[in-house]
Structure formats: structure tokens, C-alpha cells
Amino acid sequence: RRLMADGRPCAIALLDGTSITMRIKASLLGSELLSLVCSRFGLHEREYFGLAWKEEEIGLYQWIDAKGRVLEQPLPKGDIKLQFMVKFYVKDITTLKELTTKRLFFLQSLNKVTSGEMVFSADECFRLAAFALQALEGEYLSESATRHHLDARKLIPDAVIVSTGSSLDTIARRVAEQYQQLAQMSESDAITAYMAIVQKHPCYGLHYYDVKDKSGLPWRLGISVDGIAQFFQDSNLARKVTPWTALSNVSFARNKLVLTCSSKYLEDDRGGASPRKAASTTSDFWFTKTQVHSRIVLEMIQQQHVFSMNLMRPVYHTVTQTSMLRRNSRGNTTSPATAPPAMRERRLVSTGSNGTASSDSPVVMRSKTLGTPSIHAAAGSPASNEAITPVT
Known about the structure:
The protein is α+β, with helices and mostly antiparallel strands. It has helices at residues 2-6, 30-41, 99-114, 122-137, 143-153, 158-164, 168-179, 187-198, 263-269, 291-324, and strands at 8-13, 19-24, 49-55, 60-63, 80-86, 207-212, 218-224, 227-232, 240-243, 247-253, 256-262, 281-287, 347-349, 364-366, 374-377. The strands form 4 sheets. Strands 2-1-5-3-4 form a 5-stranded mixed β-sheet. It has a 4-stranded antiparallel β-sheet with strand order 6-7-8-9. The chain starts with a helix and ends in a 15-residue tail after the last strand.
């Protein structure tokens, strides 16, 4: 009882390598906890970030539900250990407004590069290290200082050191040659230059999940705001990319995940299939380690898709309302509310057995114009599948 009154101990690891500790009370919401962490940085663009804990059994991160109470979520027993991370990526950080936000994107990308999760050539790694030093340490001092910083911050991936067969002294010399050329470059410009290279990497912005196909061969699903990419084993080249407009349904039953795609949307994205042409569907079957694994993948698909739709919302309003607020032959203006049905978005909710709308059903579909998938779990699967909110 005293533990519930005082709260559970919680340690939150930050992207700069530091951490904060606090006690989580029973009434604290996920969004409130995220706000507390963001206030440490003076961060205002909070929509790109989240808090997650690692499921050690399957090696995957589960994200804190912002709308739910923190202590009511399936956290591991004992002290709570969370990670503050970028959850939703932008294609170009120059679209971000604040340097603080850009710096956090940079730090997360730096962690992925130095850990070897994102693989670059040796020359690219040396160039990235020079930009990172300019952003983190400021102006170039000496070759010995460069070597010290490279070693202390582990800016060169171990795989690059091994593949080049060079000593750290040799690598420091090559990095220092480029580091010296960045004199007078501001932190903001160094971060932008670093991210300009990273953002071109095919794995940038992806959340990876290990799965297997019907034959038991290992694959990885890379989920982002652009859709779902399929990678065979450890390859960095996607065999197939499914944009959200092509995904018509996602479901899982235990450790089986099913992604259903519509060929019509794929053809539309590639340059215009006729709307009269009948669309065919294909399904990809993937197998995960556990049911929890499947649920984590499903939730990430749902959340990335919703965020993608929110990014498109301003454009959708501009294009749609401008076309609807046009004058007809009599000089009257057609408002969005009175526009033809084809120009308005429809929200189709699955119905219950009595034919009425079922608020408990997780299946929500959007009109084919926007191509939003219905996402649901098979009967009996304890998935927290919040219905996708349509753009209005």
C-alpha cells in the first residue's frame, strides 16, 4: 500500500547518455510522464517522441500508451526502466522548427550509426564522425584531441575498424583531416550536414521487427510513416515496400501476422490504374516468436499509420476544401458539408450481430480514396487495437 502511495521507482534513459529518476504514482498518465521528460529539454515539438521499455524475452521495445495510466500498462516487475526515443521520424529535419528537436533526432541517429544498426562505408563513417565532432565538441583542436573524442564517444563502429584493418591513430588522422575543414561551422549546420547523409540511408526512420516466412526463413519488417518494408535476413535493401495506401488489412492470430494489400492502390501510386479495373488483393503471411511479439508489431503499424495520416492532414484540407469551395454555374459556393459524397470522406465501422454499430469492434475502414487499412486482431487475441481516427 505504501508503494502504491509513494509510487514505483522509475529510471528514464535519455538520448544524450544521461538519465533521470523519479517515482511514478498510480494516477500518472503516459502523456504526463512524457511531458515531464520533455520539459527537461525545453522541448515543444513533442509529437515525434515517446517512452518505451524493453521486453527482454523477445528483445523488442513496447511503447508507453500516452492515454493510459503508466502503472496500468504491462510493465516488467520491479523498478521501471524506460527509454526516451524518437518514435516518429521526419524525412528531412530541416522541416523541424527547433534546434532542440533536431539535436535529439541527431543523437538517436548517432546511436544507430555507432552501434552498427545503420551500416555505412568507412569513408562515410569518417565523414559522419567529423560532423559529429563539430556538433558535439565544437572547433577542431588537435589530432590527439580528435583521437580522444573518437575513443571516448565510440564514434567509429567496431565493424569499420575491423574491416579497414587500421589502428585508431590512423582513423583519427583521417577524421582529423575532414574535421579541420569544418572550422566556424555552427552546431545547427553540423547537425544538418550529418543528418543529410543519414537520411539517405534506406534504413533511416524504420522500426525493425524480426519475423519468419512460411518456410521458416528469417526476414525483417521495417515500419515507418511511409509504410512497411520487407528485408530478407540482414540485407539493407528492401525486397518490397508497401505504402499505407496499398495496405487494406492487417490482422494477427497468436504468432501469425497477415498483411493484405490491394493491387489497385499499388497501380494508382505508380501512375494511374483505371478506377473501373477490378482490384485484386494479395496477402503476406509472417510468423513471430510470440503473441506479444505480434501485438507489438500490430500496434506499431497502427501508430505509424495514424501519424502518417496526421502529417497529410494539412495537405488534404488544402487540396480537398479548395476544390470543394468552388463556385458553380449560378455563382453559389459549394461547402464541404454539402459536397458530393465522392468528395467527402466516409467512415465505415464494423457492425455487431444486431446490425448496429459496434463501439467495441476494433475494425475501422476509410473510403477507398484515402486507402486506409482496417487493423484488427483475431477473435480471442488480447490486442489493444484502438480504432484509427479518420481525417476530418
